[in-house]
């Protein structure tokens, strides 16, 4: 496996292209909310028709919390959710409280191939094949580097 990290927050067209590649090549994605933070409930309601499941946990991609459990929203990855992801944000790291849920993670066959910890401005890819790594080349302006 190879690990690559973002070295710059994808913005505007780069963000839209990243979301397009991620949604087209994933089965589902998830984001989280935390009880101690406020979120825009109207935005969460837009994702409700595409929500596959919700559950509470203290552990998700890149994070283990000692505080209260977070709520994970598992969402269908499709053209409609792509539109929502690009309507409510212009950059990847816009996905933070109080407006938006946090820590978007995209999955294919239950494998998390992209995850981020948005409040820490961290995002990265885990590749098991060159196919997914080559998808990064389709995203103009995306700045990444391999983690040794």
Query: What is the beta-strand fraction?
Result: 35-45%
Total of helices: 4
Main sheet strand line-up = 3-6-2-7-8-9-1-10
Low-confidence stretches: none
Give the helix proportion (percent range).
Answer: 10-25%
| Gross geometry | globular
Report the span from N to C terminus: 11 Å
- As for the number of domains, it is 1
The biggest beta sheet is recorded as: 8 strands, antiparallel
- SSE string: EHEHEEEEHEEEHE
Q: What is the number of beta strands?
A: 10
Radius of gyration: 14 Å
Instruction: Please identify the structural class as seen in this structure.
Output: alpha+beta
What's the rounded overall pLDDT mean? 93
Please sum up the structure shown.
By secondary structure, the chain is an alpha+beta fold. It has helices at 12-24, 41-47, 79-87, 130-135, and strands spanning 2-6, 28-34, 51-57, 59-60, 63-64, 70-76, 102-108, 111-117, 122-127, 144-147.
Keyword list:
eight-stranded antiparallel β-sheet, single chain, 148 residues
Can you characterise this structure?
The chain is of the alpha+beta class and 148 residues long. The protein has one domain. The chain is 24% helix and 36% strand. The strands form two sheets. The protein has an eight-stranded antiparallel sheet. A two-stranded antiparallel ribbon has the order 4-5. Strand 8 and strand 9 form a beta hairpin. Helix 1 packs antiparallel against helix 3. The longest helix has 13 residues. The protein starts with a strand and ends with a strand. 27% of the residues are buried.
